[in-house]
């Protein structure tokens, strides 16, 4: 039993784009789980409507074929059907709108104060991340650049156009505030498995609150055209257990203060 | 930093409930400097505001504002 569990439950979740992928990446945050659930809700009504419309269409084409039914009827009114075809779509719209608005407003609710603030600053064509919660003066914040690893330098098993040299290390199961901005042109910070896409606008600080629920490595790409290397500025978020976060951050701090 | 780093940052401010936190960062910076003007440079009460603006504002913005303050061209109600 345990062997079976080991074999099947350690399949890695989809946290990066897969070739020929049809569905969403696996959710790592409550927001993404909400988005996926909303998608399933809407898809149900979508199939209902699709089957209904196709049925009516095929039925009309079959029964009113000019060879079988040469004389067209001239019907211009039908009060009952008009009332029904107005009421039913509005009821269906309501069923779609309720979970949609619930998700939309809950995404903006900041109920718990975040524990960490990370600044993601977009440049042409790399990212800078600042972790400044621990400074005692205006200098010294943990800052590092994150460049894509070029194809020639990739190791076996790494993803093309998705890997970076320095990942954003975050603690899992912790409320984070990510402040997204840009130093030159608009970029966008997107991580699909976390349900995040936030534009990085120069001169503006956009805040997103996320809670990464499981450890793992999550990949994303720049989502706003920003010049020639727009396709070559990925984002990699690594969620580590909360107790390891301190040592990971200080390990990154040591080489950084050597240069800074 | 072997023991647990205390995870604390600028709290959510009800004055700035929306996504755009530019004004939040700017306000915290101004609050810190007004606090030091009122209470003196060495006061510890103002350190709270300092932590907040450092958490929220990009380092480049802080450097630029510090230079502007020094040259007297800072565009804010200090």
UniProtKB/TrEMBL annotation, chain A:
Its transmembrane ranges are 42-62, 83-105
What InterPro entries does UniProt report for this protein, alphabetically? CcO_II, CcO_II-like_C, CcO_II_C, Cupredoxin, Cyt_c_oxidase_su2, Cyt_c_oxidase_su2_TM_dom, Cyt_c_oxidase_su2_TM_sf
Q: Which reaction does it catalyse?
A: 4 Fe(II)-[cytochrome c] + O2 + 8 H(+)(in) = 4 Fe(III)-[cytochrome c] + 2 H2O + 4 H(+)(out)
Q: Where is the signal peptide?
A: 1-16
Q: Tell me where in or outside the cell this protein is found.
A: Mitochondrion inner membrane; Mitochondrion membrane
The Cytochrome oxidase subunit II copper A binding domain extends over 113-251
**GO CC annotations on file:** catalytic complex; mitochondrial inner membrane; transmembrane transporter complex
What the record notes about the co-factor is:
Binds a copper A center.
Q: What is its main location?
A: mitochondrion
Keywords, alphabetical: Copper, Electron transport, Membrane, Metal-binding, Mitochondrion, Mitochondrion inner membrane, Respiratory chain, Signal, Translocase, Transmembrane, Transmembrane helix, Transport
A Pfam match: COX2
Q: Which cofactor does it need?
A: Cu cation
* Record NCBIfam families: CoxB
Would you identify the family this protein belongs to, as annotated?
Answer: Belongs to the cytochrome c oxidase subunit 2 family.
The name on file for this protein is: Cytochrome c oxidase subunit 2
User: What is the organism of origin for this protein?
Assistant: Arabidopsis thaliana x Arabidopsis arenosa
Specify the taxonomic lineage: Eukaryota, Viridiplantae, Streptophyta, Embryophyta, Tracheophyta
């Amino acid at each position: 039993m345990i062997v079976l569990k080991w074999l099947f439950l350690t399949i890695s979740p989809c946290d990066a784009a897969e070739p020929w992928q049809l569905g969403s990446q696996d959710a790592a945050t409550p927001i993404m789980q909400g988005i996926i659930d909303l998608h399933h809700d809407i898809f149900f009504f979508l199939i209902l409507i699709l089957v209904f419309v196709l049925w009516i269409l095929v039925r009309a084409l079959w029964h009113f074929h000019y060879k079988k039914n040469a004389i067209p009827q001239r019907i211009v009114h039908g009060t009952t059907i008009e009332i029904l075809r107005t009421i039913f779509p509005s009821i269906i719209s309501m069923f779609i709108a309720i979970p949609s608005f619930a998700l939309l407003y809950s995404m903006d609710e900041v109920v718990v104060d975040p524990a960490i603030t990370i600044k993601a600053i977009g440049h042409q064509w790399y990212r800078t991340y600042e972790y400044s919660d621990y400074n005692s003066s205006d200098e010294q914040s943990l800052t590092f650049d994150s460049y894509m690893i070029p194809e020639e330098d990739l190791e076996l098993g790494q993803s093309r156009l998705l890997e970076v040299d320095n990942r954003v290390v975050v603690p899992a199961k912790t409320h984070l505030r990510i402040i997204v901005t840009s130093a030159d042109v608009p970029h966008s910070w997107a991580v699909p498995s976390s349900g995040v896409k936030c534009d990085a606008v120069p001169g503006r600080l956009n805040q997103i609150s996320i809670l990464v629920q499981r450890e793992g490595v999550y990949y994303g790409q720049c989502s706003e055209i920003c010049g020639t290397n727009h396709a070559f500025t990925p984002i990699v978020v690594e969620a580590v257990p909360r107790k390891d976060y301190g040592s990971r951050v200080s390990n990154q701090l040591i080489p950084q203060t050597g240069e800074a | 930093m072997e023991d647990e780093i205390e995870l604390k940052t600028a709290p959510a401010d009800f004055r700035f409930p929306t996504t755009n936190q530019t004004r939040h960062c700017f306000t915290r910076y101004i609050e810190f400097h007004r606090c030091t003007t009122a209470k003196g440079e060495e006061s510890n009460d103002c350190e709270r505001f300092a932590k907040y603006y450092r958490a929220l504002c990009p380092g480049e913005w802080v450097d630029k504002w510090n230079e502007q303050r020094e040259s007297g061209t800072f565009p804010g109600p200090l």
